[in-house]
Write a structure and sequence with these properties.
- With 373 residues, the chain is α/β, with parallel strands linked by helices.
- The chain is 35% helix and 18% strand.
- The protein has 2 domains: 40 residues, no CATH class; 264 residues, NADP-dependent oxidoreductase domain (TIM Barrel, Alpha-Beta Barrel).
- It is built from 12 helices and 15 strands.
- Strands 14-13-12-11-7-6-5-15 form an 8-stranded parallel beta sheet. Strands 8-10-9 form a 3-stranded antiparallel beta sheet, with no helix packed on it. Strands 1-2 form a two-stranded antiparallel sheet.
- The termini are far apart.
- The relative contact order is 0.13.
Length: 373
């Protein structure tokens, strides 16, 4: 065991067999020590709520397998357990991820963990079970069968979804309950009234929204206090800096940025000609054309020396930069296995100077998305 200096102090690291280092929830002296030593991610208050979250959160979209070409259940469960073991105790998921599978796996992973030791952020408002609501898009299940997705957030539906999520997660209270996408057919006031009642009933602690425009947020705030707005944000996708992020800062809300690695593109591990397998929507994503992959890798080459200076991977550098942008509550970072979780946790192992942050931002400013012909 030796000490390494982190931005928050000196945290011991362990050498030796990795199975001894990460044996989630099996008890024992070593495991207790590990939890104390690696529980280094200081909790921060989310918006004006009483919810406290970690600087980076375990994003559980990928473990549901949906749109990611499938996922291994055993790896997924171990990934969630490893995240909590390393102090990344904030878990973000959604009912629709894997059509309930993501929430179910999280419930299995944390069933023996004290409820006050982790925070559950989940979402509602996307319906795959019936044809109620506003049609959103055509999807597939893990067997390739067609599934239609609808936006639906009526009061009755929201309450049913909450009960379903609580059951799958195996908990009594959801820390942050977020509407996944705006339902144009249901008044925002009706949706938020349902959330207010769920708070009064003790089934959720705070309200959040996802993918809400500034107009949607203003309307929601007439009915309920919002802790956060979860929106896409990455080094190469920063459109929300124009209005959504300034609004959050003004209203005392936090931004929960998702896809900070642009679905893996900003790791530097994807090269032109990369082939995606199964039902993986990245194969048709504009960001994943060969030309854009080349442009992104050119950007990463410009900031690679900063990563080397901190003995960090490109992914860790990108996550750290994202966490340091104005208005960020916790950065949502996905992982499918324990190794990816450990890599993500290392994103908080170093401090970027103001000069380094500015150099990274300047390089990002020079990137331009190549439009499809």
């Amino acid at each position: 065991m030796y000490a390494r200096v982190h931005s928050w102090g000196v945290i011991p690291e362990f050498t030796g067999h990795s199975s001894c280092l990460h044996s989630p929830f099996k008890g024992g002296f070593l495991n207790d020590i590990i939890k104390k030593l690696y529980g280094h991610m200081k909790l921060r208050q989310l918006g004006n709520s009483d919810i406290k979250v970690t600087p980076i959160a375990f994003g559980a979209w990928a473990i549901g397998g949906w749109m990611w070409g499938g996922a291994d259940e055993e790896d997924a469960i171990k990934a969630v357990q490893t995240a909590v073991d390393l102090g990344m105790t904030t878990i973000d998921t959604a009912a629709v991820y894997g059509y309930g599978k993501s929430e179910t796996l999280i419930g299995k992973a944390l069933k023996d963990q004290p409820r006050d030791s982790y925070q559950i952020l989940t979402k509602y408002g996307l319906n795959w079970e019936t044809d109620d609501g506003t049609f959103y898009f055509d999807s597939e299940d893990e067997h390739g069968n067609p599934v239609k997705i609808y936006k639906w957030a009526s009061k009755e539906r929201v309450k049913k979804e909450c009960e379903d999520s609580l059951r799958r997660l195996g908990i009594d209270t959801i820390d942050l309950y977020q509407i996944h996408w705006h339902d144009p057919k249901t008044p925002i006031s009706e949706t938020m009234e349902a959330i207010s009642e769920l708070i009064e009933e003790g089934k959720i602690r705070a309200a959040g929204v996802c993918n809400y425009s500034v107009e949607n947020v203003e309307e929601a705030l007439k009915t309920i206090d919002l802790a956060s707005n979860q929106v896409p944000y990455s080094m190469i996708k920063r459109g929300n800096e124009r209005d959504v992020i300034p609004q959050a800062l003004e209203k005392g809300m936090h931004i929960l940025p998702y896809s900070p690695l642009q679905r893996g593109l900003l790791t530097g591990k994807i090269t032109p000609g990369y082939e995606f397998t199964g039902y993986d929507t990245r194969k048709n994503d504009t960001y994943f054309t060969d030309e854009n992959i080349r442009r992104v890798n050119n950007l990463l080459d410009k900031i690679r020396p900063i990563a080397r200076e901190h003995d960090a991977t490109m992914a860790q550098l990108v996550i750290n930069w994202t966490a340091n942008q104005p208005g960020m509550g916790c950065v949502l970072v996905g992982a499918r296995n324990p190794k990816q979780v450990k890599d993500n946790a290392g994103s908080m192992d170093f401090t970027l100077s103001e000069d380094e942050l500015n150099r990274i931002t300047k390089a990002a400013d020079e990137y331009e998305l190549a439009e499809e012909e």
